[in-house]
Write a structure and sequence with these properties.
about 0% strand; mainly alpha
Length: about 50
């Protein structure tokens, strides 16, 4: 009987943990690293215009 109660408590705790923790819903346009800056990705020393 003690094992069953312990198992129920453990399963309840795990269920509540998974319910209250989850993935964040983040708008990707607000993340500053979602797009490279103008100066990123070019060949060093050549500049951006050709």
């Amino acid at each position: 009987m003690k094992k069953i109660i312990s198992l129920v408590i453990l399963l309840s705790f795990l269920t509540l943990t998974f319910l209250f923790t989850g993935c964040a819903d983040v708008d990707e346009s607000t993340i500053p690293w979602s797009r490279p800056k103008d100066w990123e990705g070019g060949v060093p020393g050549l500049g951006g215009t050709m």
